[in-house]
Design brief:
elongated; 5 strands; 32% helix; 5-stranded antiparallel sheet; 5 helices; alpha+beta
């Protein structure tokens, strides 16, 4: 299996934006509320680490100007994100596996509990379990 440096070379900021495009936040809030401007945060994907048979990503929720992320019930998001077709975690994991060129398979994934980094930033961990 490749080392952490190899995974960092695969999951560059540009690749992460392709895996989870910037407009996905607006699509999510449009589906949820019928109006993308009702959303209180933007969502972006970041690669954090590789440990043993795990890839660790985080979905960063960054408060939008004039909005309140703390008022958005972000602690229920792992359950919502795990099922929501716009967020499409299952599809995201399949795309991650595709970037690994068949050398490694993604056999499972899980979303962790929302963590509050600051009043403006909350994070939902995404762990992908690998089988080589």
């Amino acid at each position: 299996m490749m080392d952490a440096k190899g995974f960092n070379e695969i999951f560059t900021p540009g690749v992460l934006k392709k895996l989870f495009p910037e407009d996905r936040s607006d699509q999510f809030f449009d589906a949820l509320y019928g109006d993308a401007t009702e959303g209180s945060y933007d969502i972006r994907l970041e690669f954090k680490n590789h440990r043993e048979n795990r890839l660790e990503f985080e979905l960063y929720l960054t408060q939008r100007s004039g909005q309140c992320i703390s008022c958005s019930l972000t602690y229920g998001l792992p359950e919502v994100f795990s099922r929501h077709p716009v967020i499409n975690i299952k599809g995201l994991v399949q795309k991650v596996e595709g970037l690994l060129d068949g050398g490694v398979r993604c056999i499972d994934w899980q979303l962790g509990a929302t963590r509050e980094i600051s009043d403006e930033i909350h994070v939902v961990p995404l762990v992908i379990i690998l089988d080589n």
